[in-house]
């Protein structure tokens, strides 16, 4: 795993000493290397520029949605996608331009769609027939308005990833099914709807994918759909949205293609197909690959349990409440001791949290140098689906989030307090 260190040999994040960050912001904490976020967004953009393909990089903000992150996305001129009224609200709070927001979701509520229309969200990615009706009904309140939409399709492609991270297969809750003709029916309805402007189609086959073949197959299939609709309905697509899902390295055992190379390989496949219409813009929706590698979680070591003949348990001051991924997806991570990240491992421990669950294991086999209570441990590549999936389980306050860039660190989400935990509780007496 790639890490950076300073003259003292300590782990650095965004040019800041990880021990100093732990001291200043306390632990547990999520720290982001903001330059790494920017660099990944730019790497995606560069691939499209090189191939001269019109594009949008739409950051899938479910991976990590805070005001500060939407501000960085806006600075980098990328689009974002949101999947709830809450993400939309947060993006708008950050003054993210509504026209550059796509709104996703398999069960958008009437209130969420109303909020999206009121905000002037650029694109609504319609997932099902219920939503197609609901949206048209809501648009009647503003007869002069036309709303840009994409139709989300399930292209019948299973990605090789954890079952909970697959979304493109036919048996999925997301999108209009292609094989049964539902997608075609949806296209007919959308094209006939006077207030809907159908830009094109969307598919997202899954997340944490290492093989480019699934994306290439999906892209080829979607192009054939667009060609068929062109012939059948005279429809000229402006957008083909291929979703996100590009896998990242969590441990040295992972060997993904660099995310931008993934996109390059997909574009190469797309460019092999002759089109009877002008090249539609290709949109991608990476979440994990933009923020995952840029994020670090800092913890402090507390208790330790040694049982002769068994692997020791080393407990830290966080756990499944701030990173549910190991418990939910059997996800693997890498930990280093922030003071000596390059020191050879002396032992392999169960790195566990403080939650009242045996499954609260952050890393089942963590090779580490000797650790003492108070030592700062950094878990790497935790920038995606960590903070955004955090909970208050066991009434633990959620950690602080800090952005580090050019040697400067800034608190961007304050640590919750015990008072925050009861702020919505009402007395029964
Ligand atoms: C529709 C859609 N787009 C984009 C993403 C982002 O995926 P990832 O974070 O794997 O890039 C997801 C999440 O899996 C998604 O459901
Ligand atoms: N939350 C999942 C990925 C996102 C799935 C959303 N479609 C993970 O941590 O791997």
Q: How would you portray this structure in words?
A:
The structure is a single chain. By secondary structure, the protein is of the alpha/beta class. It has 2 domains: 4-32 and 294-421, Lyase, Ornithine Decarboxylase, Chain A, domain 1 (Beta Barrel); 53-291, Alpha-Beta Barrel (TIM Barrel), CATH 3.20.20.10. 29% of the residues lie in helices and 24% in strands. It has 12 helices and 21 strands. It has helices at residues 18-25, 34-51, 67-75, 85-93, 110-119, 129-139, 182-192, 212-233, 259-271, 288-291, 325-329, 418-421; strands spanning 4-5, 11-13, 16-17, 29-33, 55-60, 79-82, 101-103, 123-126, 147-154, 176-177, 196-202, 239-241, 281-284, 295-305, 313-316, 335-337, 347-352, 361-368, 376-380, 400-405, 408-413. The strands form 3 sheets. Strands 4, 14, 15, 16, 17, 18, 19, 20 and 21 form a 9-stranded mixed beta sheet that branches. Strand 20 and strand 21 (408-413) form a beta hairpin. The longest helix has 22 residues, at 212-233. The model has no long low-confidence stretch (mean pLDDT 96). The structure holds pyridoxal-5'-phosphate and lysine. The site of pyridoxal-5'-phosphate has 17 residues, from helix 10.
